[in-house]
Amino acid sequence: MPLFTGTQQQYYGSQSFSGTGGAGPFTLTFPNNQVGSASNQTMPTSASDFNVTVAGVAKSLSTHYTYNATTFQITFTSGNFPASGVAVVVSLLNPNLGNYQFVNLTTIINNFLISYVGQDKIIPKVRRSDIAFHAQRALQELSYDTFKSEKSQEAELGISLKMKLPHDYVNYVKITWQDVSGIERLILPARQTSNPSSLLQDGNFDYIFDSSGNLSKASDSDTWLAFQASTNGGDANVDADGVLAGGRRYGLEPERAHGNGVYYIDPLKGTINFSSDLSGKTITLKYISDGLGTEQEMIVHKFAEEAMYKWIAHAILATKANVQEYLVARFKKERFAAVRTAKLRLSNLKIEELTQIMRGKSKIIKH
What are the structural domain ranges in the chain? Predict the structure, then answer.
């Protein structure tokens, strides 16, 4: 049985029908592994997920047709019936392209049960919940340094100079701002400041306590307020294009030799705080996720599928009683080898691209 089902037309997000001269209904039959609506459901949940054309002319919901999200049927209204033989085309707005290279976590668990669990197999008996737990832990760990788990989002920075961290944020890759040409300018972190907890004090500089006896704290620290009011996020000797202004080099710190502004992350409050020269700019945050944020994110690239199986097998054997130590050691080695193979495969190295990059390595760098 092939893993890919449906037609090429369905994969690219469209389905054709032939008009009958009546209302229909026309039933959508997109395969589950090829449909991606706005909410990433297996089938369109509303008519806003697709467009309908009849003989190349766009039709609108209610005016020309209705859609039943339960039966996935399109029915044309009276007076708008497609003529017999006329092409009726339904096009998804967000087709789930490129999905064939991934396997979802449910499939990983099912395949593991078939291949590794049972009589005369490595693991005679194990609960599905245990497999699911170790599968999620494997997905989480491999997302940090093996999978392509980098995500990104952009937002315009307001006068508060704060950007909220995403719900599935683990660590940042880089933070940039976008110039008028769409080029991303790298923003470097400010290591010499932070937003500490600011304790409230009375006129005698004694701490103030609330009714429960806890220390009263201000919403923002004086350190952050001073940083927020500062007009220079980079080095004073560097202009907005990152070029040394007027040739002034004395006392220049290389890490501050730029005019792109600075930031620091406040993990306690879940925000990224920026310098004032970045106000109004479009900020792009590229970060690492643990791969467990939503159900749709819990997928595994096929290059790393074997690494998942070996990770789960080792984790189960290492936590079961009365398992021979040599068996645990064997799967530990196999897990290490499978993860290493997955990293090499997912590194996506191309000889032509490496050759082009290495051509510049022979240049003499002047200090």
Answer: 8-97, 103-147+306-347, 150-289
